[in-house]
Amino acid sequence: MKRFLSSVAPFFGGVLFAIGLGVGGMTQPSKIVGFLDILGNWDPTLIFVMGGAVIVYAVSYRLITKRNAPFFSEQFHLPTRRDIDVHLVLGAAIFGAGWGLSGLCPGPGITAFISGAPEVIIFVTFMLVGMFTFLSYEELNKRFG
Hints:
Blueprint: H1 2-23, H2 29-36, H3 46-64, H4 86-102, H5 106-112, H6 118-144
Helix pairs in contact: 2-4, 5-6
């Protein structure tokens, strides 16, 4: 039963996340661009979405990590690296530029994909191409680097 739940729980977590993105307006590129346009026609409403998410995460994290182990695994899998390197900074810059230019990031992009909007399909397609290119580069770097 625990194995079955560990397979199904991520799916329902993803569905809940997608619903939250949709309800919060995070799948609307115009809403994101309006929030990022602080010198123009700024739309501050996403502060409440992000603030609510941060509060839920902060409280949940503290409660959950007090347990000896998560519900569906033998141990917690938390990041241990704390260093800031060129890959992190470059990746964050590319992510931020893409988010600012398109108004979408991966989660909302995949959630909005179901809309069939051409700009979302283009975004997700290029996101997948970028991911494949990076993975191919990493694989070649391991073999010949």
